[in-house]
Amino acid sequence: MSTSHEPFFTPVDINGVALRNRFAVAPMTRVSATEDGSATAEMARYYERFARGGFGLLITEGLYTDRAFAQGYQHQPGLADAAQARTWRSTVEATHRHGARIFAQLMHAGAISQGNRFRDGTVGPSAIQPRGQQMAFYYGQGPYPTPRAMTEEEIADAVQGFADAAGRAVGEAGFDGIEIHGANGYLIDQFLTDYSNRRSDRWGGDASRRVGLLLAVFRAVRAKVGVRVPVSVRISQGKVNDFGHRWAGGGRDAEAIFGALADAGVDSIHVTEHEAWRPAFDDGPDSLVALARRFAPRVPLIANGGLHDPARAREVLAAGADLVALGKGALANPDFPDRIRAGREATAFDPALLGPIANIKPSELAA
Fold first, then answer.
1. How far apart are CA 229 and CA 176, in angstroms?
2. Segment 122-137, tens digit of pLDDT
């Protein structure tokens, strides 16, 4: 192994969960569950190969949390009941057999749901039509409908849904930790975003107030799973429906969001950008990873975004990240850590892998 790669292969700890190296698999929606949201044997094989290939941490695709408005896609897996949760146990056990750990990512789609078998219509912080178009490779078509603004009771139900799903993830499925999906344009991010959250109550206002839903979800999840289970939060600026979005308040918003998460006691922050090493804003050189490190100085950081190049990955580690999460790089190289350790070149990602539908392909399981 090259000495330049040695930093990737030192162990790291997230709230007592020991990881064998600094490589994680990023959450990636694969719409491959059964119609009723159960994980399948094919999904277990899909996740197992990342563990077998040397990754220290796996983070699942977003799992919907309730039987109301959380589901975002057809064939999305869920944790909305104990039966769904139990279908993940074989995946968790396979991950552990190969020495890796696995976190369940909990997701509520909110206003950008494009496939919910439980409810007609969508909800969000405000009755504002989402930007962009539904994603065809997740069975979507056309513009997003305008959501209905959530009531206080519906917000409370959504928060409880996250907590109950977290309890099932740990108790029924045996996951090692939880990641709360606060990124990429889904419900929590809709509350964080200035143009989609026009509320005048306690859930709206400046960034220090718009982060309120995320903090409420974190506290509810923490209360459900206890202090010994790692609870991470994923944060982004860009969204699946608004790729180039940047926080209106720039560094002030970064300070409000990351500082609030640090004060709340989150166990790690997962920062995702298209290219994680680039400046977050036009008025300074700092990446979002560097800003997270500045405003949450003692919280472990996971960085995601174009980091399949080891040189770029080392750059974000130097900027303060503790782990590097790979998405497309992991799809093309489920054995990425073992390849790097052995000095072998990584395979380039083939976009056809996610088209025309982004489901798991037989060729992936044969690899």
1. 7
2. 999 999 999 999 999 9
